[in-house]
Amino acid sequence: QVQLVEFGGGLVQAGGSLRLSCAASGSIFSINAMGWYRQAPGKARELVAAITSGGSTNYVDSVKGRFAISRDNANNRVYLQMDSLKPEDTAVYYCNADGTYYSGAGSLKNFGSWGQGTQVTVSS
Questions:
Q1: CB proximity list for 33: less than 8 A, separation 6 or greater
Q2: Residues in Cβ contact with 64 at an 8 Å cutoff, skipping those fewer than 6 apart
Q3: pLDDT digit string (tens) for 62-104?
Protein backbone atom coordinates (compact mmCIF):
# COMPACT_ATOMS: atom_id res chain seq x y z
CA GLN A 1 0.00 0.00 0.00
CA VAL A 2 0.97 3.61 -0.43
CA GLN A 3 0.65 6.33 2.20
CA LEU A 4 0.67 10.09 1.68
CA VAL A 5 1.60 12.61 4.35
CA GLU A 6 1.18 16.38 3.94
CA PHE A 7 3.22 19.12 5.59
CA GLY A 8 3.14 22.89 5.59
CA GLY A 9 -0.35 24.13 6.32
CA GLY A 10 -1.00 26.97 8.72
CA LEU A 11 -2.37 30.44 9.28
CA VAL A 12 -1.29 33.31 7.04
CA GLN A 13 -2.51 36.81 6.28
CA ALA A 14 -4.03 37.66 2.94
CA GLY A 15 -1.31 38.29 0.39
CA GLY A 16 1.07 35.92 2.11
CA SER A 17 2.56 32.62 0.99
CA LEU A 18 2.65 29.02 2.08
CA ARG A 19 4.33 25.94 0.67
CA LEU A 20 2.70 22.56 1.04
CA SER A 21 4.63 19.33 0.72
CA CYS A 22 3.43 15.77 0.34
CA ALA A 23 5.54 12.64 0.67
CA ALA A 24 4.46 9.26 -0.68
CA SER A 25 5.82 6.11 0.92
CA GLY A 26 5.31 2.39 0.66
CA SER A 27 6.02 -0.28 -1.90
CA ILE A 28 5.81 2.14 -4.78
CA PHE A 29 6.56 0.99 -8.30
CA SER A 30 5.49 4.11 -10.14
CA ILE A 31 3.39 7.22 -9.59
CA ASN A 32 1.37 8.69 -12.43
CA ALA A 33 -0.46 11.87 -11.50
CA MET A 34 -0.09 13.72 -8.22
CA GLY A 35 -2.32 16.52 -7.17
CA TRP A 36 -3.72 18.81 -4.55
CA TYR A 37 -7.38 19.11 -3.69
CA ARG A 38 -9.09 21.32 -1.17
CA GLN A 39 -12.34 21.34 0.71
CA ALA A 40 -13.79 24.37 2.39
CA PRO A 41 -16.56 24.07 5.01
CA GLY A 42 -19.89 23.33 3.37
CA LYS A 43 -18.35 22.91 -0.05
CA ALA A 44 -17.39 19.97 -2.22
CA ARG A 45 -13.78 18.89 -2.56
CA GLU A 46 -12.21 20.45 -5.65
CA LEU A 47 -9.06 19.85 -7.63
CA VAL A 48 -6.62 22.72 -7.14
CA ALA A 49 -3.64 21.55 -9.18
CA ALA A 50 -2.29 18.37 -10.69
CA ILE A 51 0.95 17.26 -12.29
CA THR A 52 1.80 14.21 -14.36
CA SER A 53 4.98 12.18 -14.13
CA GLY A 54 6.18 14.04 -17.20
CA GLY A 55 5.60 17.42 -15.61
CA SER A 56 2.42 18.56 -17.33
CA THR A 57 0.31 20.66 -15.01
CA ASN A 58 -3.21 21.96 -14.75
CA TYR A 59 -4.85 24.34 -12.29
CA VAL A 60 -8.31 25.41 -11.30
CA ASP A 61 -8.93 28.88 -12.74
CA SER A 62 -9.13 30.55 -9.32
CA VAL A 63 -5.47 29.80 -8.51
CA LYS A 64 -3.83 30.29 -11.91
CA GLY A 65 -0.94 32.70 -11.64
CA ARG A 66 -0.80 32.39 -7.85
CA PHE A 67 -0.14 28.70 -7.16
CA ALA A 68 2.55 26.46 -8.61
CA ILE A 69 2.68 22.69 -8.37
CA SER A 70 5.93 20.75 -8.72
CA ARG A 71 7.18 17.26 -7.99
CA ASP A 72 10.33 15.36 -7.15
CA ASN A 73 9.96 12.02 -8.89
CA ALA A 74 13.10 10.56 -7.36
CA ASN A 75 11.74 11.08 -3.85
CA ASN A 76 8.02 10.65 -4.55
CA ARG A 77 7.15 14.13 -3.38
CA VAL A 78 4.82 16.82 -4.63
CA TYR A 79 4.73 20.47 -3.64
CA LEU A 80 2.29 23.32 -3.86
CA GLN A 81 3.67 26.84 -3.67
CA MET A 82 0.83 29.21 -2.81
CA ASP A 83 1.41 32.93 -3.23
CA SER A 84 -0.89 35.95 -3.00
CA LEU A 85 -3.21 33.95 -0.79
CA LYS A 86 -6.79 35.08 -0.39
CA PRO A 87 -9.32 34.36 2.36
CA GLU A 88 -11.27 32.24 -0.12
CA ASP A 89 -8.28 29.88 -0.32
CA THR A 90 -9.05 28.81 3.24
CA ALA A 91 -9.69 25.07 3.25
CA VAL A 92 -8.30 21.69 4.17
CA TYR A 93 -5.82 20.73 1.46
CA TYR A 94 -5.41 17.09 0.50
CA CYS A 95 -2.65 15.41 -1.46
CA ASN A 96 -3.63 12.73 -3.95
CA ALA A 97 -1.59 10.28 -6.01
CA ASP A 98 -2.24 7.31 -8.25
CA GLY A 99 0.07 4.70 -9.68
CA THR A 100 1.18 1.12 -9.10
CA TYR A 101 2.76 -0.65 -6.15
CA TYR A 102 4.36 -4.01 -5.41
CA SER A 103 1.65 -6.21 -3.94
CA GLY A 104 3.82 -9.25 -3.30
CA ALA A 105 4.92 -12.32 -5.23
CA GLY A 106 6.24 -10.12 -8.01
CA SER A 107 2.86 -8.62 -8.88
CA LEU A 108 1.80 -5.02 -9.26
CA LYS A 109 -1.49 -3.39 -8.36
CA ASN A 110 -2.95 0.03 -8.96
CA PHE A 111 -3.38 2.45 -6.10
CA GLY A 112 -5.10 5.73 -5.51
CA SER A 113 -4.23 7.33 -2.19
CA TRP A 114 -5.14 10.41 -0.20
CA GLY A 115 -3.29 12.20 2.53
CA GLN A 116 -4.90 13.09 5.84
CA GLY A 117 -5.27 16.76 4.94
CA THR A 118 -3.65 19.93 6.20
CA GLN A 119 -5.50 23.09 7.19
CA VAL A 120 -4.74 26.34 5.37
CA THR A 121 -6.33 29.44 6.86
CA VAL A 122 -5.98 32.86 5.24
CA SER A 123 -7.04 35.81 7.36
CA SER A 124 -8.26 39.07 5.87
A1: 50, 51, 52, 53, 97, 98
A2: none
A3: 999 999 999 999 999 999 999 999 999 999 999 999 999 999 8
Nearest CA to 7 out of 46, 36, 43, 45 is that of 36
* DSSP per-residue string spanning 76-109: TEEEEEE-S--GGG-EEEEEEEEEEEEEETTEEE
**Measured distance CA(45)–CA(42) in Å, rounded:** 10
Please answer whether residues 66 and 83 qualify as being in contact, where contact means their C-beta atoms are separated by less than 8 angstroms: yes
Strands 91-104 and 28-39: antiparallel
